[in-house]
Amino acid sequence: EVVAVFGSMQMAASRLINLQHHRIAQCRTVQINIIGEEGVPIQVDGEAWVQPPGMIRIIHKNKMRMLSRNRALEMSLRSWQEKQRLGKSRSQLSHSLSQNEIQIAIPFVEATNNLVKCVKELIKHPVGLELYELANRTSSNLEKINLCGKIQQGPELRQLLTSLVNSARELHDQTCALLKENAKIMQLEPAAESHLNIALSMLELELRKCHFPDNGQSLVYFQFASEQDRKGKSGKLSWLKFRRDKPEKADSPKGISGDVKQWGVEE
How many domains would you assign to the chain? Predict the structure, then answer.
């Protein structure tokens, strides 16, 4: 399509309003002859220049793909982004802790902190080096949650508590196993041993309130333990005591000391 304008003002106005151009013709080939002694300003998809007198021939060479605005696609993309934003906000809302869960999580955090302190103070024997590193990792998880003595609120709180529950349970189990196997070697004082037993027992009670749902989620949820879960099978808490072997009393029947060594945790 070959059109003409009659000045720069008309060309500028045609950019702003739907101004009718002077239509010349439709053609396959255009030849422009510049005659005279002065050049003519020309602009082709870029910076303009002054073309000296001569002949310009414009012919069709090939086709080129062009980008065009698709409003339907824009609306569809905007709708998808809005759904993604709403889905993310709902996911964060569903992962946030309720007020009841926070009330249950506070004693758990305190029990975990108490056990970490006991382990760091008492487990100084070389056999407890790995346990000491586990206590440091649990302490690091505690610092992410319990800043300045308060549990930090936020959408990532449940994920942080899940990491803390896993490390606290591992610390509890590893401490019990270490003391059960190396109680004689470590030679803990009776008062310190009793303090550690209480810390282990309190954390065991709090861990019973931590539940992982069966729907495939790996996040922890807090709820009060049932009466059956609060007690062991024998009706007593499964507290672990790691006493050093004492000399056998004179009036004790023979063979009792050997039998006691074979007793399990519940016995």
Answer: 2
Q: Could you tell me the pLDDT band of residue 105, with boundaries at 50, 70 and 90?
A: confident
Distances (CA, A) of 202 to 46, 149, 167: 78, 19, 16
User: How are the residues of the chain apportioned to helix, strand and coil, as percentages rounded to the nearest 5?
Assistant: 50, 10, 35
Helix (H) or strand (E) holding 10: helix 8-16
- Quick check: is 250 in a domain? no
pLDDT tens for 65-104 read 888 888 888 888 888 888 877 766 555 545 677 788 888 8
Please state, in angstroms and rounded to a whole number, the distance separating the CA atoms of residues 70 and 11. 28
d(CA 140, CA 84): 33
Tell me which amino acid residue 111 is. A
Cβ–Cβ < 8 Å for 164, 138? yes
CATH number at residue 173: 1.20.120
- Each residue's pLDDT tens digit, 7-27: 888 878 877 777 677 888 888
Query: Averaged over 48-75, what is the pLDDT?
Result: 88
| Rounded (10°) angle between helices 190-207 and 157-186 | 150
Domain membership flag for residue 55: yes
Describe the crossing of helices 99-122 and 190-207 by its angle, rounded to 10 degrees.
150
- Exposed e or buried b for every residue in 88-123, given b needs 16+ CB within 10 A? eeeeeeeeebeeebeebbeebbebbbbbbebbeebb
